[in-house]
Structure formats: structure tokens, C-alpha cells
Model the fold of this input.
Amino acid sequence: MPSLISVEEAHSLILEQIEATSCETVSLEDAFRRTLRTEIVSEQSSPLFDKSLMDGYAVRTADFDGLSVTLEVLEMVSAGEVGKCSLQSGTTVQIMTGAPLPSGADAVIPVEMSEREPGQSRVRLQTTGITPEKNLIRKGAILQEGQTLLASGILIRPAEIALLAELGYSEIETSTEPSISILATGDELVSAGEPLGPGQIRNSNAPMLVSQVKRAGGILRNLGIGRDQRSDLEQKVSKGLEADILLLSGGVSAGEKDLVPQVLKGLGVREIFHKVQVKPGKPIWFGVQQKPSGEKTYVFGLPGNPVSSMLCFEVFVRPAIRQFLGQSPAPPVLRKLPLGKAHVAAGGRPTYYPSQLVSEPEGLAVTPVDWKGSSDLLAPTRSDVWIRFPAGDREYHVGEYVDVLTPEW
Ligand code: AMP
Ligand code: MG
Done:
């Protein structure tokens, strides 16, 4: 029997097939969770002017060296206004948070350190701890004109949205999202809301994959359920091949009724690999259909067992989507965390084990949850991450560092 390819080999084979998609301009609000496709170089500085960080009084620190000072208040400047006065010796300007600093000022004394009688033009200010540059921020202290701020290929999060808004962007160049079709296959499958006959089960993979696709970024088409018959599969898979990415579940193992690989090949989808040394998820199938127009459809045959499908999406499909969107690095980055509970790993394949993050007095640890295997959908609901145990029989001790895959849920 030929030896199975490794997860890393599968990643290389997937990523070398997938070209980054084209770009489209979207409004800033619609850019959330999309991929930035242009480098952002600042055309302005931030802040745009010297400004106060407190509600209080703008002062010249040269005016005092004792515990307090009494100054003449020239005017009041709120955020959004520009004052008329500049500070001379013995004067102050009452200023609000975010307001432009009057020229001549080099510190702000918070209002809590002031005493001023109503209607009085003089104010007494405590000056303890008020050194030059206190409670203000200078023009350009955060970023300067010409500075590279964001790289192409990053995921746009609320922080990036806010920065782009500050810089005045109302629309932005992002990756076109892939169209992704989902087809669950199996004679035994019943959709939610339909009565369940003897021997039948619900289709849990389609709703799960729909939500995984939503999270990863894609325009969805749920093609329902394909039956384990050549004609039905051919018809539905053909529809699925109109998309950029087609996700099938079930029908890729070695059973009599596992027709998916044959049907795909019959429709001109070239097999890149079938089966990977991974648990769960060994039967995974990947191929590419190249249309006469030159466009490609990337096809994943995910194993039918729900936890296998879920894990294979995270390990193989999500990197494909990342590469399609122009995000890097595409393959999942594993991090090291100490085990919170001893664990016995067994078997000839690396195993991704549903696990929980736990806060311990010494820091964050990771603990495998009780898991009955690839049809056990309860375990993932009790878990946050997957521990990747290497192939081989071994006992792992508490505190030992293990590799952890953290999906973006
Ligand atoms: P298969 O890969 O088609 O041999 O399916 C493997 C196992 O997963 C079988 O027990 C199937 O009944 C089950 N299964 C397949 N597709 C689904 C699905 N969409 N939802 C839930 N279980 C499924
Ligand atoms: Mg099946």
C-alpha cells in the first residue's frame, strides 16, 4: 500500500494549486473581516495637531516651580474648536480633552487640580507632578505622513477599520470573496425539519460547514443533500462546480457507495491527493477542475463523519481559502501550550484532539476533553482548540508542551 502523504505535504499540494483572487472595492463598513489588498501608506500625521489628553488648563511649566500657581484664564477651547489666544507668562487656557493646544503651552493641568470661583477669570492650579509634556500629545506622535501602516494581505479587524476611518478612507480595496458550494452526500441523510426514518440520521455537516465558511469568508451556496447514486451526484456536483470552491462531505472512503471520487473524476476534476496521514480525516480528497475559460474550481471531498469534516475544514480548507484571499501565512500556525492533564496518545497518524483552554495559577494550559471519536459532536462543543499529538504511542505528562491549533471561530 502506498504510504499516505503528511499534513504538510497536503498543504503544499493545496497551496501550489491556488492563485490569489482578484480585488474589489468595498465600503469601509463592508470591509470588516475581508482581506486588505493594498498597502496603506499614511498621507497624514496623527494626531493632526498638538492636543490635550485631559479636561483642564493648558499651561507653561516655566510659570511655576512651587506647589501651586494662580493664572489668568484667557479663554476656553472645546474639542472641535480652535482657540484664538496663545499663552504668555502668567496666563492659561481652559481646555477640553481632544482640543488643540494653544501655542506656548507645554502641559495640561487636570481640572481636578484646579480651584476657581464662579465668574472669576483667575484660577489656582496645583502643580505637583506637572512636568513638560504632561497630559498632552504632540502632532505626529502616533504616526507620520509617508509611514507604511498596513500590509496587503491582512485580515481587516475592528482595529484596522478604525485606523482606516481615522485616515479618511470611506472605501477600500479587498479580495473578492470565493463562491463556495456545499453538498452533503449520503442516502441516510435527512434535513432538519424532516421526519427521521429507521436507520436515518440528520445532516449535521452542511449547517456546520456553512458556519465555518461564513467565518472564513465566502459567498455560500448550500446545494442540500446528494444521494449515493451516480446520476444524482453528477447533477448536483456539476452545479457545485460553478463555484470557486466546492465542499463535499461523505462518500470519499472505501465503501461500495462511496462514489464521490469517481463522479468527480468523471466530471473532469483532476485528483491532486486522496487520503492524508491525519486523524480524524484520513479519507480527505482534493482536486482541481480547470475550465476552458481558464477558471479553476478547487474541490474538497471531506469525510462524512462530522468531527472529521470539521477538523479537515480547519486544517485543509481554511488554508485554501486564506491563499485564495491572498492572506499569509496560509497554513495554520500552531502554538505551544503546556498540558493541563496527562494524556495517552496512540496510533500511526498525528491526531488532532478536541481540547479546552484552562486558566491555571501558572498560566494558560490545554486539556484534552472526553472524546468518543469522529462521530462525537459533543466533544467539540466542550472544546476551544485542537491539540496536535504526533503519530506514535506515548504518554504525555502534565506540564509538557504540546502543539495547539486554534481555530478562528
Ligand atoms: P461516509 O464518509 O459517507 O462513509 O460517512 C461516514 C459516516 O459519517 C457515516 O456514519 C455517515 O452516516 C456519517 N455522515 C456522512 N455525512 C454526514 C452528514 N452530512 N451529517 C452527519 N453525518 C454524516
Ligand atoms: Mg456516505
